[in-house]
């Protein structure tokens, strides 16, 4: 098998500004941790992000679960991103035709393209969804992740569907920066582009599930399966001490990465 590339090597190969920035941030902070701060209170979300900010390379948001949203909240978020040096990934999971996602990405109440660096999309509609999102995001140096696999039980994103995401990514090297994936080593062999990032949700130090389909892997096994960035939600924000939990996941993820090189 070809040797695994370091984050520095991937940064050097990256064709997209946001992707380069992500790898450079990971190297600078020694962090491959992305926290999913899925709390409903905007006030609590901002306070927790300020606490755990030093430990993450990327904040994953679900803007539509927050109880308050306005341009001031967006500004607070981007200020925190600058203060702690992390990227913002809005986990919007776009899934519509190109023309509709143009508006969903740039307009509405959330104006996602104004404050996020990275968004993601399902390829269910076909490649037109990438063309639409690219129309908005490329000129602003944004990046797009494709959902190649999901962490939930019974996911239909598998087999030829997963492989199709590789084809769509290879056709859009300027804008598609990688994948949401769970077991990338099992299907990425055909990918030409070794700069692409694999971001993996469903990570917890204690394996198990949540009673609603989530299936957890630990940091070490996720990295061994080819993941680059570990996404942790409840493992951090439900912990008694979110900051020390984030530090623990940062250390576990980074040691797992170093042991793979
Ligand atoms: P938690 O670690 O609390 O289970 O949170 C996982 C996060 O990752 C959630 O924000 C969820 O929406 C997201 N996610 C996931 O769990 N599985 C996927 O396949 C894709 C996701 O975006």
TrEMBL record:
<keyword id="KW-0210">Decarboxylase</keyword>
<feature type="binding site">
    <location>
        <position position="234"/>
    </location>
    <ligand>
        <name>substrate</name>
    </ligand>
</feature>
<keyword id="KW-0808">Transferase</keyword>
<feature type="binding site">
    <location>
        <position position="233"/>
    </location>
    <ligand>
        <name>substrate</name>
    </ligand>
</feature>
<keyword id="KW-0511">Multifunctional enzyme</keyword>
<feature type="domain" description="Orotidine 5'-phosphate decarboxylase">
    <location>
        <begin position="32"/>
        <end position="249"/>
    </location>
</feature>
<feature type="active site" description="For OMPdecase activity">
    <location>
        <position position="93"/>
    </location>
</feature>
<feature type="binding site">
    <location>
        <position position="214"/>
    </location>
    <ligand>
        <name>substrate</name>
    </ligand>
</feature>
<keyword id="KW-0456">Lyase</keyword>
<feature type="binding site">
    <location>
        <position position="38"/>
    </location>
    <ligand>
        <name>substrate</name>
    </ligand>
</feature>
<comment type="pathway">
    <text>Pyrimidine metabolism; UMP biosynthesis via de novo pathway; UMP from orotate: step 2/2.</text>
</comment>
<feature type="active site" description="For OMPdecase activity">
    <location>
        <position position="91"/>
    </location>
</feature>
<dbReference type="GO" id="GO:0004590">
    <property type="term" value="F:orotidine-5'-phosphate decarboxylase activity"/>
</dbReference>
<keyword id="KW-0328">Glycosyltransferase</keyword>
<keyword id="KW-0665">Pyrimidine biosynthesis</keyword>
<dbReference type="GO" id="GO:0044205">
    <property type="term" value="P:'de novo' UMP biosynthetic process"/>
</dbReference>
<protein>
    <recommendedName>
        <fullName>Uridine 5'-monophosphate synthase</fullName>
        <ecNumber>2.4.2.10</ecNumber>
        <ecNumber>4.1.1.23</ecNumber>
    </recommendedName>
</protein>
<dbReference type="GO" id="GO:0004588">
    <property type="term" value="F:orotate phosphoribosyltransferase activity"/>
</dbReference>
<feature type="binding site">
    <location>
        <position position="60"/>
    </location>
    <ligand>
        <name>substrate</name>
    </ligand>
</feature>
<feature type="active site" description="For OMPdecase activity">
    <location>
        <position position="96"/>
    </location>
</feature>
<comment type="pathway">
    <text>Pyrimidine metabolism; UMP biosynthesis via de novo pathway; UMP from orotate: step 1/2.</text>
</comment>
<dbReference type="GO" id="GO:0006207">
    <property type="term" value="P:'de novo' pyrimidine nucleobase biosynthetic process"/>
</dbReference>
<comment type="similarity">
    <text>In the C-terminal section; belongs to the OMP decarboxylase family.</text>
</comment>
<feature type="binding site">
    <location>
        <position position="151"/>
    </location>
    <ligand>
        <name>substrate</name>
    </ligand>
</feature>
<comment type="similarity">
    <text>In the N-terminal section; belongs to the purine/pyrimidine phosphoribosyltransferase family.</text>
</comment>
